[in-house]
From TrEMBL:
InterPro entries: ArgE/DapE_CS, Bact_exopeptidase_dim_dom, Pept_M20A, Peptidase_M20, Peptidase_M20_dimer
Similarity annotation: Belongs to the peptidase M20A family.
Protein's name in the database: Peptidase M20
Keyword Zinc appears in the UniProt entry: yes
Domain Peptidase M20 dimerisation, chain residue ranges per copy: 206-349
Keywords, alphabetical: Hydrolase, Metal-binding, Protease, Zinc
Length: 466
């Protein structure tokens, strides 16, 4: 029987090189309805087979939808609900003209200075590699899970997941699969989340904002710019956008955002600890403090951000049309329809038309912080990051797991990477990278998660608290 030592050494010394190879395969999201780069995704599938032969001999693999991968590692007790690990093969493109700004070419996968550099190093090929490094080493040790483990690798997460994760979810739904819980990307270990909090925090997403894309448009008389009317199309649109900025949707300290503050309160210095432990009295002050920073203000409310503005064709011609695209992230507890009505009320101008460009998805339900799944995940985090505080939180972006919500009682969002604030813009940005040591610790996290069985369910809390 193969000893455990060689398998763990392989994870420590080879994971970075295999991530490097994965980055070199340009599995860029197509977007705008274009077909995916089938050759790149086929090459990525082949690379996985070559990199992880034991895993591919042991796990069943299906290619679904537009190249999405569903793996099943059969458990010794088929009656137990499976665990689902989600990651995605696709990456966002590198903005044209910015490749020279990278310290290392974005698709070279260079390993330098203790980091693996390149597009996908954090989002999300490191997770693909870490999951398969863990499985490969456990198979080499002769380990077999008690419950079935499913691994879903989408191909279009960055553009909605309709051709990848959604196809996997439909397949599982048709088979009547019910999941113990699902684990996807979304949050990680970070520092400086609140002033005065010295310890790093492992944030675990227990709810996800909904998403909606709207268009505001105005039609008005065009003509020569030397004779402008009192109100132009561009001016009318600008007034509508200004009203939306002046009257944001209400801020509410509830749900996952409130749960995060309550979990962090014992680890804060005196005055902050007092305020967060007594939100019934200090909530207005806490809310005002959180609203000063965009990253914490977004925990409190549905956000409306103009992201695309279009008007005009020439500097001396009045534009006859002007449009703005709004990216709307909907707080759990609210609905897409209700938020749209609120935006219409704020704009309140018959000259401004509003239409839905992309319906997106409703906000998620809130997953339990008392369930066996939560305790299983928390145990793996604490084993690999003993220095951190574990806290639930809200996921502001969207992930593939939204296609699986009806298949799992609980969906959690966590990646075992420890990033400091200056590194966060690297996700989807220039000089994306992951530390070799961080990657190896991520492999250890997934090994722990797969080796340990879910704990028994706790007795129900009084009042049905989750």
């Amino acid at each position: 029987m193969t000893s455990a030592r060689p398998a763990r050494a392989r994870a420590a010394t080879g994971a970075a090189e295999r991530l490097s190879q994965a980055i070199r395969v340009r599995t860029v999201s197509a977007g705008d309805g274009a077909a995916p780069a089938e050759g790149a995704f086929a090459a990525f599938r082949d690379l996985l087979v070559a990199s992880y032969p034991r895993a591919h001999e042991t796990l069943a693999r299906e290619v679904l939808g537009d190249g999405a991968l569903l793996y099943a590692w059969p458990g010794a007790e088929p009656g137990l609900e499976p665990l689902l690990l989600l990651a995605h093969q696709d990456v966002v493109p590198v903005e044209a003209g910015t490749e020279a700004d990278w310290s290392h070419p974005p698709f070279a996968g260079e390993v330098a200075g203790g980091f693996v550099w390149g597009r996908g190093a954090l989002d999300d090929k490191a997770a693909v590699v870490a999951i398969f490094e863990a499985i490969e080493s456990l198979v080499a040790e002769g380990f077999a899970p008690r419950r079935t483990v499913l691994v879903a690798l989408g191909t279009d997460e960055e553009v909605g997941g309709a051709g990848g994760a959604a196809a996997i979810a439909r397949t599982l739904r048709a088979r009547g699969v019910r999941l113990a819980y699902a684990l996807d990307e979304g949050l990680l270990v970070t520092e400086g989340i609140l002033p005065g909090l010295a310890a790093p925090v492992a944030l675990v997403g227990i709810a996800e904002k909904g998403m909606l894309t709207l268009e505001l448009s105005v039609r008005a008389a065009g003509g020569h710019a030397s004779m402008p009317p009192r109100r132009t199309a561009a001016g009318i649109l600008a007034l509508a956008l200004a009203r939306l900025e002046r009257r944001p949707l209400p801020a509410r300290l509830r749900g996952a955002g409130r749960a995060m503050l309550e979990a962090l309160a014992p680890h804060l210095p005196g005055p902050a600890r007092l305020a967060l432990a007594n939100l019934w009295a200090f909530e207005p002050l806490v809310r005002a403090a959180l609203e000063r920073r965009p990253e914490t203000a977004a925990l409190l409310r549905t956000t409306v951000a103009p992201t695309l503005l279009q008007a005009g064709v020439k500097e001396n011609v009045l534009p006859a049309t002007a449009r703005a695209v709004l990216n709307v992230r909907v707080l759990p507890g609210e609905s897409l329809a209700g938020v749209r009505r609120r935006i219409e009320e704020v704009v309140r101008d018959a000259r401004v038309s509003l239409r839905v460009l992309e319906q997106g998805s409703e906000p998620s339900a809130t997953s339990s912080v008392r369930s066996p799944g939560w305790r299983h995940l928390e145990g793996a985090i604490r084993a690999c990051f003993p220095e951190v505080v574990v806290a639930p939180s809200l996921v502001l972006a969207a992930a593939d797991s939204r296609h699986f919500r009806d298949l799992a009682g609980d969906v959690y969002h966590f990646r075992p990477w420890q990033l400091r604030a200056p590194d966060l813009p690297r996700i989807h940005g220039t000089d994306e990278r992951i530390g070799v040591a961080d990657l190896d610790r991520g492999v250890a996290f997934f090994r722990r998660l797969l080796r340990e069985e879910l704990p028994a369910a706790p007795p129900p809390a009084s009042g049905g608290a989750r």
